[in-house]
User: Which sequence fits this backbone?
């Protein structure tokens, strides 16, 4: 027996029992097509919710303190649901969007939730001592958590890379060149060390270099990331003046 026939047979009952093994989206579309007016109680694991139909239109929903379209999005996305039908009294309409719109957007939201998270960057330590240095570990943890940093390099005060999150160290020489050039300019101009160095890259990303006491932090930022905000977060997180 098809899902539609099972559902149609159940709808004819005044007191509906529990319906299992039916896709909730298919069942609701059948209610819409047949222009039914009813209250649909939906159960899934320890969750429950109610969908209200009037002449085939989904007009309201309730689940765990939510109502309207937000509750409907939650309910229609449940898997392995059980359904019970009851008669319903007059109820004001809270949902204006058609059922198809709700089913489509609920499916889209579920797909987004199921997308795998991007793998965490692999941290490379140049020496065994670097792996156990508390201050360095703290810096790595802070930089790893800042959104907008594609990858970073940590250099000691002599310009040698001691740890990085990049897939390679191709930019190492460029970073050292920028730092040495900046240092030479400082000496020639007799000015204080720069608070940071910025450089725009061809692909739209940015190079951001922040000298700190005892180390130098170099970051490649994602395109359109705010250099100012990231610099502020780095300075605040490391708490080094």
Assistant:
């Amino acid at each position: 027996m098809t899902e539609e026939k099972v559902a149609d047979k159940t709808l004819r009952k005044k007191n509906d029992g529990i319906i299992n093994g039916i896709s909730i989206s298919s069942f609701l579309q059948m209610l819409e097509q047949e222009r039914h007016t009813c209250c649909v109680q939906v159960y899934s694991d320890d969750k429950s919710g109610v969908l209200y139909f009037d002449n085939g239109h989904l007009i309201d929903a309730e689940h765990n303190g939510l109502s309207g379209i937000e509750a409907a999005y939650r309910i229609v996305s449940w898997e392995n649901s059980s359904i019970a039908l009851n008669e319903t009294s007059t109820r004001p309409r809270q949902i204006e969007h058609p059922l198809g719109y709700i089913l489509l957007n609920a499916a889209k939201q579920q797909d987004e939730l199921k997308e795998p998270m991007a793998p965490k960057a692999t941290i490379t330590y140049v020496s065994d001592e670097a792996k156990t240095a508390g201050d360095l570990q703290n810096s790595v943890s802070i930089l790893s958590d800042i959104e907008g940093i594609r990858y970073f390099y940590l250099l000691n005060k002599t310009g040698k890379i001691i740890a990085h999150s990049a897939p390679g160290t191709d930019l190492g020489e460029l970073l050292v060149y920028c730092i040495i050039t900046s240092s030479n300019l400082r000496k020639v101009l007799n000015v204080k060390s720069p608070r940071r160095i910025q450089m725009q890259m061809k692909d739209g990303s940015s190079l951001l270099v922040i000298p700190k006491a005892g180390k130098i932090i170099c970051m490649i930022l994602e395109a359109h990331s705010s250099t100012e905000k990231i610099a502020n977060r780095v300075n605040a997180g490391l708490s080094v003046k």
In short: The first strand starts at residue 18 and ends at 19.
